[in-house]
Amino acid sequence: MTATLETRAPRRRRLGRLSESRNGLGFLFMLPAAVFLLFFLTYPLGLGVWLGFTDSKIGRPGVFIGLENYRWLFDDPVFWLTVFNTIFYTVFASIAKFALGLWLALLLNRHLPFKNFFRAVILLPWVVPTVLSAMAFWWIFDSQFSIISWSLMRLGVIDQPINFLGDPWNARWSVIAANIWRGIPFVAISLLAGLQTIPQSLNEAAAIDGATSWQRFTKVTLPLLTPIIAVVMTFSVLFTFTDFQLIYVLTRGGPVNATHLMATLSFQRAIPGGQLGEGAAIAVAMIPFLLAAILFSFFGLQRRRWQQGND
Amino acid sequence: MASVTMDGVRKSYGSHEVLHGIDIGIEEGEFVVLVGPSGCGKSTLLRMLAGLEHITAGRILIGGRVVNDLPPKDRDIAMVFQNYALYPHLTVAENMGFSLKLAGASRAAIADKVRPAAEILGLAHLLDRYPRMLSGGQRQRVAMGRAIVRDPQVFLFDEPLSNLDAKLRVTMRTEIKNLHQRLKTTTVYVTHDQIEAMTMADKIVVMHDGRVEQIGAPLELYDRPANLFVAGFIGSPAMSMIRGTLAADGQFLADDGSRLPVGDTGRAREGQSLIYGVRPEAMQLGGTVPLTVEVTEPTGAETYVVGRMGGTPITGVFRSRIDVRPGGTLDIAIDPAAVHLFDAEGGQRLTA
């Protein structure tokens, strides 16, 4: 009797203390979200990493084999080709998406007639399901019925259809073009939102201070936009690096693996190929690249000195 | 320093005209305040002078040169914006020296200009800070510093004090006036606050609905408002206005039947429908005009009395302390020489 009383009292005191301390309460309130994240993010990620260290095949659990999968990939020219493809794809698509997206955002930030209509239209490529737009590009890039080839032949520029997806370099540029088309809206609309946070009076003040329109862009608009550019481009790079759907519908990685990205190769080896362990290892190999991109933006995103202080 | 002339200036947005032919002459070194209620077009006019808005018709001259088609940077003006428009990514020194840097001045030349301007404004110790780290008053000073550094022909101020608290506003008012007396640069200042206009201006331009109602020195506007709008706009508390006519004996016959004294009837004719205007301080205690007291507001030095005469609200200000309960009656006298008569139809001043 006395024993139970004695044990209960300190426990109640501990709970009371927990509910009074700021950190304790914070921890308590974070718990549901933490459990959720742990279950739906960490578990699959952890499982993927674990699979990468096993020789699992579909229908066979497999055993721990250490770094054997990675050693195998290290000597696999196809894997290195996909690493090159992925970087090539990400770099060129991201640069083009940034340049065109910024240009579009600057255009949309002006006083245009039907401004809202244009802003809505811009979003379309992003709203359409990827598979659907990929199918459309499949037709646009068709070796015989391509509208681009047809138009150019009609204009007399070329005399036979362009083999968009059949030639390795043509295929690389074609999938990049499709990715740019799909990714521009995200960049343009996000940067437009950023542009609208820049007060008009800053541009006017710069105009009075003697800045040309190019100087107003480089010395006022661009510096004030950098924090948003950093966020938008981080996301854009992450989306592009992990792209799967577009490639899978358009080329399935062909011709001769010229458009195989790490994501498509991972899927190819793991599911149709049945080598779960090896596929997982390829996916895990993407992590360092993604981490590098995130770290890059983390330092880019750090509040600059001019952003600090109270408003 | 330069003179500024506006000659029949008009502004339309599509078919909607917002400024209907503005003529203003500003002399070299003058401090001119454009004042009027919001939406009267004063800011638009200033922006047209700055080159930020297109001039639909008419001409604007700065220093005798037509600037209608010149871009802002070629007009040799500097502007202080309502929200200060400081570049957030530049330090105070960089903000102030921005125009010089654009003009290709050397680092030493920029420092030579920025330093004295910062000293005038008491910003010397803040030169390395960013705008976010400054208080409202300091930001305001940086914005003025940016204008001073350019050493322009004309300073333009667009409601520069409206984002500050009441106390700081009074301080900055004095500072801007001091600055003008020191630099003697022609200044055009826009505000909706008639007290700012009265205290700072050499010349006030009262605007209303895209027209100039009256141009004159502050006290001229106060003593001889050209029309009902100016009479009601300038002065705080506002002038009391009573409807009525001029009686045969030369006195004013209010609509409620009370008779009020008139000094000079001017162009007012007997029987004409009139507005009788009297400023709060033109009333004294102890007279024959009964005022029904509604509210008394003692401020220490003076007492404001808000009351009614017949149905008309009247505000008086008295030097002595008054102890009348709301609902009580106060007998007042009106100084006949300080009475303004206006035409009830067109609102024009009839007293000389």
From TrEMBL, chain A:
<dbReference type="InterPro" id="IPR000515">
    <property type="entry name" value="MetI-like"/>
</dbReference>
<keyword id="KW-1003">Cell membrane</keyword>
<feature type="domain" description="ABC transmembrane type-1">
    <location>
        <begin position="83"/>
        <end position="299"/>
    </location>
</feature>
<dbReference type="GO" id="GO:0055085">
    <property type="term" value="P:transmembrane transport"/>
</dbReference>
<keyword id="KW-0472">Membrane</keyword>
<keyword id="KW-1133">Transmembrane helix</keyword>
<feature type="transmembrane region" description="Helical">
    <location>
        <begin position="280"/>
        <end position="301"/>
    </location>
</feature>
<feature type="transmembrane region" description="Helical">
    <location>
        <begin position="21"/>
        <end position="43"/>
    </location>
</feature>
<protein>
    <submittedName>
        <fullName>ABC transporter permease</fullName>
    </submittedName>
</protein>
<dbReference type="GO" id="GO:0005886">
    <property type="term" value="C:plasma membrane"/>
</dbReference>
<feature type="transmembrane region" description="Helical">
    <location>
        <begin position="222"/>
        <end position="241"/>
    </location>
</feature>
<feature type="transmembrane region" description="Helical">
    <location>
        <begin position="173"/>
        <end position="195"/>
    </location>
</feature>
<dbReference type="Pfam" id="PF00528">
    <property type="entry name" value="BPD_transp_1"/>
</dbReference>
<feature type="transmembrane region" description="Helical">
    <location>
        <begin position="120"/>
        <end position="141"/>
    </location>
</feature>
<feature type="transmembrane region" description="Helical">
    <location>
        <begin position="78"/>
        <end position="108"/>
    </location>
</feature>
<comment type="similarity">
    <text>Belongs to the binding-protein-dependent transport system permease family.</text>
</comment>
<keyword id="KW-0813">Transport</keyword>
<keyword id="KW-0812">Transmembrane</keyword>
<dbReference type="InterPro" id="IPR035906">
    <property type="entry name" value="MetI-like_sf"/>
</dbReference>
UniProtKB/TrEMBL annotation, chain B:
<keyword id="KW-0067">ATP-binding</keyword>
<dbReference type="InterPro" id="IPR003439">
    <property type="entry name" value="ABC_transporter-like_ATP-bd"/>
</dbReference>
<dbReference type="GO" id="GO:0016887">
    <property type="term" value="F:ATP hydrolysis activity"/>
</dbReference>
<dbReference type="InterPro" id="IPR017871">
    <property type="entry name" value="ABC_transporter-like_CS"/>
</dbReference>
<dbReference type="InterPro" id="IPR003593">
    <property type="entry name" value="AAA+_ATPase"/>
</dbReference>
<keyword id="KW-0547">Nucleotide-binding</keyword>
<dbReference type="GO" id="GO:0008643">
    <property type="term" value="P:carbohydrate transport"/>
</dbReference>
<dbReference type="Pfam" id="PF17912">
    <property type="entry name" value="OB_MalK"/>
</dbReference>
<comment type="similarity">
    <text>Belongs to the ABC transporter superfamily.</text>
</comment>
<dbReference type="InterPro" id="IPR047641">
    <property type="entry name" value="ABC_transpr_MalK/UgpC-like"/>
</dbReference>
<protein>
    <submittedName>
        <fullName>Sugar ABC transporter ATP-binding protein</fullName>
    </submittedName>
</protein>
<dbReference type="InterPro" id="IPR008995">
    <property type="entry name" value="Mo/tungstate-bd_C_term_dom"/>
</dbReference>
<dbReference type="InterPro" id="IPR040582">
    <property type="entry name" value="OB_MalK-like"/>
</dbReference>
<dbReference type="GO" id="GO:0055052">
    <property type="term" value="C:ATP-binding cassette (ABC) transporter complex, substrate-binding subunit-containing"/>
</dbReference>
<dbReference type="Pfam" id="PF00005">
    <property type="entry name" value="ABC_tran"/>
</dbReference>
<dbReference type="GO" id="GO:0005524">
    <property type="term" value="F:ATP binding"/>
</dbReference>
<dbReference type="InterPro" id="IPR012340">
    <property type="entry name" value="NA-bd_OB-fold"/>
</dbReference>
<dbReference type="GO" id="GO:0140359">
    <property type="term" value="F:ABC-type transporter activity"/>
</dbReference>
<keyword id="KW-0813">Transport</keyword>
<dbReference type="InterPro" id="IPR027417">
    <property type="entry name" value="P-loop_NTPase"/>
</dbReference>
<dbReference type="InterPro" id="IPR015855">
    <property type="entry name" value="ABC_transpr_MalK-like"/>
</dbReference>
<feature type="domain" description="ABC transporter">
    <location>
        <begin position="4"/>
        <end position="234"/>
    </location>
</feature>
